[in-house]
Amino acid sequence: MRRLGSVQQKIPCVFLTEVRNEPSRKRDCQQFQVVATENVNPAALESGIHCAVATEKIDGTCCYVTTYNGEPCLWARLDRKPTKQADKRFKKYQYSQKTCKGFVWNVDEDFREVPESWIAAHRVKQENGHPVPDEHGHIPGWVPVDLTNKQYCWHASVVNYDVGVALVLKTHEDEEGLLEIVSVPLADLMEQTLELIGTNVNGNPYGLGSKKHPVHVLVPHGVLRIRNPPPVEFQQLYSWFQECQEGRVEGIVWHCDDGTLVKIHRHHLGLKWPVGDTFLNTRPVVVHVDETDPDASEKDLFKSFSSINGQPFSCIQDIQFEP
């Protein structure tokens, strides 16, 4: 099974899109929305979309594993964003022109400061030694997850740097349809991107854990393959999201043979997300996490998972730890 592409930048829609002057279904306070037309994106066709691998788009926050100070480290997504004044100019241009293209940024003055440890994402264009914003006015990038930084406490809960492992949800190697939560060496995840999901991420659309006992895991991008994907055709995709159990997902990400990634989000089709009874929660899961530190606190997530090591559950939402 080939390793699928990592997510370093915003993924384009599989269809050409247009901006409509109506409130966004995806972002509060955004008075316009981007919707798909029925025309397949030429870039997707050029990359062989009809032969691409279709995978479930997971709703969390993007992470990346690479070295920091010579050791494998989990990095959190931190896009460098415009200042309020620059963003106001950008949105005004976007409204008047109905497009983001052609807007001119002053990277030295228009963007907020980021930590010294910040790095730009792969394939971010550079001009005169400065990274160039994407069409959304962001400069995608990463910061290393520091276990003492409360801003990234939920990222920190899924890694143990002393042992060098991470908590990962993936498909079982031997049983199709079965998921497993395992502790994976960070060294085995190098240069991969993953999605952090759980109790305190993006409104918890999968209903994981509880306030008293949060549950978070990393999901490698591309690992949840769609077994019977619909053809890349507007009406068939719309019907699949509406009518199929497997379509109760946030979206689809296609991984093309040339490394190109393209996606469709339910919001592109005017459909609601999140939905109850997500497809992820129809799949059984088993826990395979050994104890890493006998002296860890009771709140340590690795310790909690090790207490149910070997146990099967009907779905990830059913995983609850003892009080």
TrEMBL record:
One of its GO terms (biological process) is response to reactive oxygen species. It is an enzyme of class 6 (ligase). Signal peptide: none annotated. GO terms for molecular function: ATP binding; RNA ligase (ATP) activity. Pfam families: RLIG1. It catalyses: ATP + (ribonucleotide)n-3'-hydroxyl + 5'-phospho-(ribonucleotide)m = (ribonucleotide)n+m + AMP + diphosphate. Its EC number is 6.5.1.3. Its cofactor is Mn(2+); Mg(2+). Keywords: ATP-binding, Ligase, Nucleotide-binding, RNA repair. It comes from the Eukaryota. Functions as an RNA ligase, in vitro. The ligation reaction entails three nucleotidyl transfer steps. In the first step, the RNA ligase reacts with ATP in the absence of nucleic acid to form a covalent ligase-AMP intermediate and release pyrophosphate. In step 2, the ligase-AMP binds to the nucleic acid and transfers the adenylate to the 5'-PO4 terminus to form an adenylylated intermediate. In step 3, the RNA ligase directs the attack of the 3'-OH on the 5'-phosphoanhydride linkage, resulting in a repaired 3'-5' phosphodiester and release of AMP. This is RNA ligase 1.
